[in-house]
Design brief:
Number of strands: 12
Number of helices: 12
Distance between the termini: 107 Å
Oligomer: single chain
Structural class: alpha+beta
């Protein structure tokens, strides 16, 4: 087909009917379609329908400014780049060498914006935009003499990013009759019906990354209260060995909700993000900022099945490492006990000789 015979408006109208992946594929076919695909008006409704949080005033200002500053780039910047960065999920593939950039030393909490959307049965039930990291302090680039107690606390304590206003909003989700009548199977229903997106946007570079697994990796009842449920999402980020001895860090996103069975709805209590190494230890604030920065450049895939397999491989490696450590500790304990018994036997024998 000779696209030169079609006007820009006709091509734009045709491409406006495509979904994001099809629009991106069409843009790769020829220069004419690529020029049309750079129109931000095509990508804006796609972003807003996929991530309703992008309809907020803060997000519109960020993406509009990113578009104007990237007007000469090949991807068009703005909404087009945001979709390209945020739609694929972070992929961990243990068969390929993990790629990571050099550890960035100057990373500031105020550089990041979180756009969080929660879906229940394909309907968006919660959207939040969080600017910066509440309670955090810029620790990069500060000399020891200028570091305050707040900066030192953030730098050394385990990192945790909370959407603090959810508790105040008391956001709720109404359950269907089939869910309300089978609360015993609510874990299975939540696994099937709840989806979560946590997009991290860097104001300076204009890059974005979706740190969530989209589907829950784990759903379980709270051991303390039977009506409380915990859902776990996340991804695996390749980092330098200076940040993690194994060169990997797990982004852990937890969503907690309470079942109000008498009224037939779920009350969302909190959504938080943190990082753990392969031993399950929490990563501190200063290192977590570097992990967030490196996550913006990690490998991704639109194949959700491949992403799930990668996470399963990571969990298997964690289990194998845990078992190896347990075996080492068991051998060491048996060795210590053997030495103690030998020493005790030697003392008893010496006592029988002298007394």
């Amino acid at each position: 087909m000779e696209f030169q015979l079609c006007s820009h408006d006709i091509l734009s109208d045709i491409m406006a009917r495509l979904e994001g992946s099809s629009l991106a594929a069409a843009a790769c076919t020829c220069s004419d379609l690529r020029t049309v695909a750079r129109d931000q008006s095509l990508w804006k409704p796609l972003c807003e329908s996929t991530w309703p949080s992008t309809t907020s005033t803060e997000a519109e200002q960020l993406l509009s400014s990113s578009s104007s500053s990237s007007s000469t780039s090949t991807d068009g910047g703005g909404y087009a780049k945001f979709y390209a960065d945020s739609f694929p999920l972070v992929l961990y593939d243990n068969k390929k060498p993990m790629q990571h950039e050099a550890v960035t030393t100057h990373v500031y909490p105020s550089d990041f914006v979180s756009l969080v959307d929660v879906y229940y049965k394909e309907k968006c039930i919660l959207s939040k935009v969080l600017d910066g990291i509440p309670g955090a302090a810029d620790v990069s680039g500060s000399s020891d003499s200028n570091v305050t107690d707040c900066q030192r606390w953030f730098s050394t304590c385990p990192f945790r990013l909370d959407l603090l206003d959810i508790e105040e909003d008391k956001s709720t989700t109404e359950l269907g009759k089939e869910d309300d009548n089978c609360s015993r199977d609510l874990c299975r229903n939540l696994t099937q019906d709840v989806r979560l997106s946590w997009v991290l946007f860097d104001k300076r570079s204009g890059k974005a990354v979706n740190l969530s697994s989209w589907k829950p990796l784990l759903v379980q009842r709270s051991w303390l209260f039977d009506d409380d449920y915990v859902m776990r999402f996340g991804c695996v980020v390749a980092v330098g060995e200076s940040l993690s001895p194994q060169g990997l860090a797990e982004c852990v996103i937890e969503a907690k909700c309470t079942l109000i069975e008498a009224e037939g709805f779920l009350r969302w209590r909190e959504i938080s993000m943190s990082f753990e190494d392969m031993m399950g230890a929490r990563v501190n604030g200063s290192k977590s900022l570097s992990v967030l920065s490196q996550a913006l450049s990690c490998r991704r895939s639109i194949n959700h099945g491949l992403v799930e397999k990668g996470y399963s491989d990571y969990e298997r490696l964690k289990m194998e490492m845990k078992q190896r450590n347990e075996r080492r500790e068991s051998i060491a304990n048996h060795l210590y006990v053997s030495v103690e018994i030998a020493v005790f036997a030697a003392l008893c024998y010496a006592c029988t000789l002298f007394f």
